[in-house]
Amino acid sequence: MELLRQAIKIFKSYFPYLMKGALYTTFIALTGTIIGLIIGLITGIIRSMPLSENRLLKAIQKIINWIINAYVEVFRGTPMMVQAMVIYWGYAYANGGRTLPLTLSGLIIVSINTGAYMAEIVRGGIISIDKGQFEGAYSIGMTHNQTMFKVIIPQVLRNILPGASNEFVNNIKDTSVLNVIGTTELFYFGSMIKMKTFRIFETYLVVSVIYFILNFMITRTLRFFERKLDGDENYSLADSQISTQGGEDK
Amino acid sequence: MKKVILALLVVSLLALTGCTKKDEKGKDYRTAKSIADLEGMTISVQSGTIHVQCAEQIKNATIKEYPEIPDEVIALKTGVVDGFVADEPQAISLEGKDDTLTYIRLVNNENGFKVEPSVSGISIGLAEGNPLRDEMNKIIATLTPEITNKLIEEVLKVSIGEKIDKYSIDMTEPAEYKGVLKVGMECASEPFNWLDETGETFDAYPLSGEGKEGMYCNGFDVLISRYIAAQLGYKLEIYEVDWDSLIPSVQSGKIDAIISSMSPTAQREEIIDFTDVYYDINLVVVIKK
Fold first, then answer.
1. Is the N or C terminus of chain A more exposed, i.e. has fewer CB atoms within 10 Å?
2. Which residues of A touch B77 (CB under 8 A)?
3. For B201-216, what is the HEC assignment?
4. What is the ipTM of this complex?
């Protein structure tokens, strides 16, 4: 098939550029997702804190909760392309022409966007933890912070892993949106190749195959980590070993 | 149940394959010799340029918009449009590379094709109140049409891949730089400014900007930028910017000048300043042969 031969030819001759683009894409998506995850965890912890008795602290807590809710609603409610334009050009206009370096601005945009989605995923994860865990921790005297970090968050991390890997996969594809501010990621190199070869279908066929391979590798790796976190299916209890030994020891 | 679903799927796929034939309009624009012959064509223009006003002067034309010239070439080759508006040097460059394309000039139609000087000339875009405008105008005054026409010919040869001895304009950089001149261009339309990713064309200039290491640009606008920067005593940095982002870039200060074959229309004059025209272009319509 002529199309396939042309696509393979494009892949071979522009291989270094495609790899460079894939590297930028993976780097921005990976770092953005991790930072977004951290932002999501922090907002989850803050939002689930019980309101304090002190009037002043209570007011401050309510204000912070309101700010976090506003952040989540705004950044979930606008497309990432629009956020990219507003953040990048807003900074340039405000600073008289000095723009953020493109990779850094890509990281900021992806992190802030992912953080908003992760805040909701973490909130869902915390809600899904049995109330008994909280009650048990409080009843043995743990503070809220201790409960969160030692009991709840480890369980939440395991629960949100499918949601987080979903966000990661979305970010790999969404980095193509950063093309509008000029970031040299995979989609940019795809449009450069299209400009040079005048073959639009073959070029984007190759680009979509590369996106798919990237995503496939990542989902399999994350699935492997999930299984490792789950541990073995079967455990042997320590008690039964002692009783067997006791039986032999006449 | 499964067999019913399978049968429905096969039938719908077969029905879709019947939808690929485009209805023959009945008019073949390959034999067009003048603007009157182009009546009723589907013509494409680059969005955000003055080509729209030119296309509107063709009778009963259906106008489509595309972001860049390479998109329009693909649309013409696949038959989505019958032709597109371009500058004459761009059309000559395309003709040299592709035997199936030709062009006709947007002059001498029965209605009298109207071209304002601001539409047919290209100049440099600067932020409002930029003091460099007067100095640049003085330098542009030294670029006579003989020089610029000769440069266009040389650049056309280079764009097809030929090698020439040297460009007939002195672009030697000064020993000391007074500052940096950041120029933005589209890098998508030969022979005015194009992207040369390997630097193989004659005397290509390296691109600045993150992620663009090892990539070069070349073309008429690049030569003009180098000449002006050398005359002003500035170091030249060329940035690749999308056509729609050129004006915001110069307004916000990300680049100092737009040298990307942009015409000083009244609409653009309201928000940015333009220097004098440095080259006059003929507008043409590119069609299949």
1. C
2. 198
3. CCCCEEECCCCCCCCE
4. 0.79
Low-confidence residues of chain A: pLDDT under 50: none
Would you tell me how many other CB atoms lie within 10 Å of the CB of residue B89?
Answer: 25
Contact A222, A168 (CB under 8 A): yes
The single-letter code of the amino acid at A245 is Q
Identify all chain B residues contacting A196, using CB atoms and an 8 Å cutoff: 195, 197
**Interchain contact, B73 vs A99, CB within 8 Å:** no
Q: What's the Cα-to-Cα distance from A37 to each of A21, A170, B113, B181, rounded to whole Å?
A: 24, 14, 60, 41
Compare all CA atoms of chain A with the CA of B77 and give the residue at the minimum distance: A198
| pLDDT tens, position by position, A159-218 | 888 888 889 999 998 899 998 888 888 999 998 898 888 888 889 999 999 999 999 998
Per DSSP bridges, beta strands B179-185 and B257-262 are parallel
Q: What is the DSSP annotation of chain B?
A: -HHHHHHHHHHHHHHHHGGGPPPP-S--GGG--SGGGGTT-EEEEETTSTHHHHHTTSTT-EEEEESSHHHHHHHHHHTSSSEEEEEHHHHHHHHHH-TTEEEEES---TT-----HHHHEEEEEE-TT-THHHHHHHHHHT--HHHHHHHHHHHHHHHHT---S--SS--PPPSS-SEEEEEEE--EETTTEEEESS--STT-EEBPSTT-TT-EEESHHHHHHHHHHHHHTEEEEEEE--HHHHHHHHHHTS-SEEEEEE---HHHHTTSEEEEEEEE--EEEEEE-
- Among the listed ranges A61-75, B31-45, B183-197, B218-232, which one has the minimum average pLDDT value? B31-45
Residues of B in Cβ contact (< 8 Å) with A182:
209, 240-242, 245
The residue among B5 and A234 whose pLDDT is bigger is B5
* Interface size, chain A vs chain B, as Cβ–Cβ contacts under 8 Å: 54
Could you give the CA distance from residue B87 to residue B220 in angstroms, rounded to a whole number? 13
pLDDT at B265 over 60: yes
Work out the minimum CA distance from A97 to partner chain B, whole angstroms.
Answer: 4
* CB B14, CB B33: distance < 8 Å: no
Tokens representing A20 are 């460079």
Kindly report, residue by residue over B250-260, the tens digit of the pLDDT.
Answer: 888 888 999 98
